[in-house]
Amino acid sequence: MTFPTFTSSHPRIRGKELGSRLAPRITANLAGYTELFRVAGAGDAQVRAWGERALERSAAWAPGLADEMAEIAAGAGLEPWQVAVVNARTEILAAIDMTGAPGVAGEGECSTSVVLPPDGPPRTVQTWDWHDHLRDAPVLWEYEHGSGRVVRTFTEAGALAKIGVTTAGLGVHFNLLRHRSDSADIGVPVHLIARRILDEADTVAQAAEIARSARVSASTVITVVTETEAASIEISPAGVAVIPPRPGGVLLHCNHFLDDGLAAGERHANDRPGTYRRLRHLEENVAGLRGADLHGRALAMLGHEPDGAPVCAHPDLTQPIHQRWETIATIGLDLPAGRLRVHRGGPCRVTETTWQTF
């Protein structure tokens, strides 16, 4: 089982080409999110208003990316606000949470490990958890930026980027955060921040500058890695913090803030305490996460809820969709090659032959 791939042929027609070629997947992804938003407590009219606001905010911050969303919509036979909804799904879910609606709940979400060894390239691995009814949303997309760099990203159909790597020698991992400053006043989608970092940044400092330039309404952490440096850039409406590696070049992140100032507004503490257990599990398995072999690093990350470390999420089908989580992918960055290595599923299902190189 592998994820579908798409390679854009030319930067000038990138959006419309992606939209037309992946129209069924983009439409299905939009339908899946529409269903999730309804169950979580948002009506269709409100979601449209949030999508239109996300498009407006995007156009003010990154006009080219707003145009690309409109081009994807034209290719897929959708309205621009509908593609903006897919790109702003993090912001819409945060907005729903802030309205007092049911929102999303349950144990799940991502765990990231980066190790900078004294010799050799960075060694990275992350799990990507999401709602199981959206397990067919991901695609692997390759496109050439106008600067000449090639970007390869694990993203969702219609979303401009998520986890990725570039031929300029920079990569990003991606984890969701929640903060008391999150709001229903939709800001720049965090997925567009990841996209601009992949397109434009060569260093951690440049990536942090891009993150600080965006007015956001939802929180996330983008872990940026180059051949020589790494940092987790924690983003929230309350501010942006840059978390460097610990001594020994180890950088671990789950779904809670590590910066002391931002952690004071943490919203995961009560409803998803598994994030802290997952981080402890990673800390206890750093020796395996240092390994040069991605397969070994994935196995070092392996852990289930009965063991006290819910790294591998498996959906409870007795629960409604907004409370069901699945580890949909395990991903490593190969910076020297500018490639992603992706396994469909969690570490508990990894074998030597299940890795997809893109």
Structural descriptors:
2 domains; 8-stranded mixed β-sheet; 14 strands; alpha+beta; 358 residues; 6-stranded antiparallel β-sheet; 12 helices; Arc Repressor Mutant, subunit A; single chain; globular; Penicillin V Acylase, Chain A
Provide the fold topology.
Layout (H helix, E strand, L loop, with lengths): L4 E3 L6 H8 L1 H18 L3 H18 L1 H14 L3 H8 L1 H10 L12 E5 L7 E8 L7 E7 L5 E7 L6 E4 L3 E7 L13 H11 L3 H9 L7 E7 L3 E7 L2 E5 L6 E4 L6 H4 L10 H11 L1 H4 L4 H8 L24 E9 L4 E6 L10 E3 L1
Parallel strand pairs: 1-4
Antiparallel strand pairs: 2-3, 2-11, 3-12, 4-5, 5-6, 6-7, 7-8, 8-9, 9-10, 12-13, 13-14
Helix pairs in contact: 1-4, 2-5, 3-4, 3-5, 4-5, 7-8
Question: Can you offer a commentary on this structure?
Answer:
It is built from twelve helices and 14 strands. With 358 residues, the chain is of the alpha+beta class. The protein folds into two domains: 5-98, Orthogonal Bundle (Arc Repressor Mutant, subunit A); 111-357, Penicillin V Acylase, Chain A (4-Layer Sandwich), CATH 3.60.60. It has an eight-stranded mixed beta sheet, covered by helices on one side. Strands 11-2-3-12-13-14 form a six-stranded antiparallel beta sheet. Strand 12 (326-334) and strand 13 form a beta hairpin. Helix 3 crosses helix 4 (63-76).
